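Our preliminary data section would be incomplete without showing what the modeling component actually yields. Below, a chain of 261 amino acids is followed by its predicted structure, encoded as tokens that our downstream tools consume directly.
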Amino acid sequence: MSSTIIAVANQKGGVGKTTTSVNLSATLAKAGHKTLLVDLDPQANATSGVGIEKREGKSVYPVLLGEGKLEDFVIETQWENLSLIPGELDMCGADIEIPKLGGDHLIHLKNALMPLAEKAEYDFIIIDCPPSLSILTLNAFVSARWLVIPLQCEYFALEGISMIMRVHAQIKDSGLNPDLELLGVLMTMFDGRTRLAQQVVSEVQEYLGEKVFETMIPRAIRLAEAPSFGKPIQYYDPHSAGASAYSLLADEILVRLSSRK
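Predicted structure:
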């Protein structure tokens, strides 16, 4: 049985994508599931978010360019069961450099991940995508079995999701990854005190139905503080509302996965 690969993606920045990648990975790991977090974002915020220093040449990028094996770039974090393949700024050149290699430039990450996934050393591989529909994000879509889309509780929430859903359909229909399925849409930065947040959630649920996770991630100061200390919320403040929300999300994801096998 191979690893379960989940891509966390949204082409819009500031929606809680990296926060979700880091804290979902850490929550699964803390629950005893061996988890590998792949930081595919040139900003490398997921890397610093688990307390790892950003270092040139230590990311997935050299492997995407045909240099070395992905397993050689895995770093063990200080958190039990949680490993990382870091991100780095050089990945900004992916859209230019990867097509130069020839062949299908959307399968490089899949080819690199396949040996790791088939060894099943990790129960989960979580890919934190860049906030764009770049070659790196499309590589993640081709590599993953499941897609999680964080969506901020704001006025324009639905405006961008149609685009990422269209790309998802194109990847499936093209045959590049016919098995890619939407695991769920995650509402983030929810503030139940505001009518706007409640209206947005209602609209998204009406539009997407059961594809929306029941769990919602609150707008919380402790969640915002945790990355500056290089700690996932489960270790920065395990009794906070943010930690509780990500625990509920992890449980909901496990239930969804078990029902879709």
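The first helix runs from residue 17 to 30. The chain has one domain: 4-259. Preliminary results of this kind motivate Aim 1 of the renewal.
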